[in-house]
Amino acid sequence: MRTSLIDLMTTEDASEEPRSNRSPWRQRLVDGERGITQCFRMSSTLYFDFFAISILLCTAVVVELSLLTWAFVFLCVILILAGELIYDAILKLAIENRERLSNKTLEYLNVINAAILVQILGSFLTIVFILGVRIVELDWF
């Protein structure tokens, strides 16, 4: 059983594979956890995302959403977090390799970042819309 691909790429001697007692699916979970903790250390925007998401989820509990709307809310939350993680990874790659990247590649990275921003904003606005419709249904305003 191998360790993660990242550990294999960083070993001194590529012919000698490090061994681990973890199964591949468990190693993938460990690598994912490492990635999330690195993202928390790299950027403070993930803290804001978790704060905003917790406020939205508390509001969703108060307005008693149906099961289907909860599914949409969770899908949007997952899209927000995945988009933020992808954005931070692309940003880190661009910063570390800025000297070797051409101007055209940097323009493509800006387009990718814009697409991720649209994804995050669209998911956030979808959650706000779902909550707003439910609040209007309850005649709170």
TrEMBL record:
Residue intervals passing through the bilayer: 46-63, 69-90, 111-136
Region (Disordered): 1-24
InterPro entries: DAGK, DAGK_sf
Record-level GO BP terms: phospholipid biosynthetic process
Cellular component GO terms held in the UniProt record: membrane
Pfam family, one: DAGK_prokar
Keywords for the protein's UniProt record, in alphabetical order: Membrane, Transmembrane, Transmembrane helix
GO molecular function, one term: kinase activity
Superkingdom of source: Bacteria
Protein name (Swiss-Prot/TrEMBL): Prokaryotic diacylglycerol kinase
